[in-house]
Amino acid sequence: MLRLIKFIWLVTLLVALGSLLYTYAAVGEMLTFGSYTFSREWYFYLALLILVIFNFTFYTLSRNMGYRDEKLRSTLISWQLSFAGVLNLFFITSVFFLMLVNSGEAFDYNNFGYLVYVCLGLIGLWILMLPFVFSRKILS
Fold it and tell me: Could you list the residue ranges that cross the membrane (predicted)?
């Protein structure tokens, strides 16, 4: 199970990097989000920094976890890496949504905007599942 979760995390990380590169190439020189305007280079490097920090943090935490119980350790590593995958999905949808807002085309955001809420719901669900994971492994 852990190998599958690591594979899914790696795939979402690669797709997130690909989506960042794609949106960097697709947007104009300046991006607008609400009342904020910034250059596409600033957007690219900030988004890349956020992606690297989150994934590096979760990966290093999962590699250096010092629990003696191997079942609990494996379960928490699975939770952390799957949570990183969910964060990557949120990153992918956010990057594409920002690209759509700045594309200059007439686009009905109702067709895509709900995905942001679905990803936020997944993040909330993953956070709420952590105590359940702890209690299930401690009781067994």
Answer: 7-27, 42-61, 81-100, 112-134
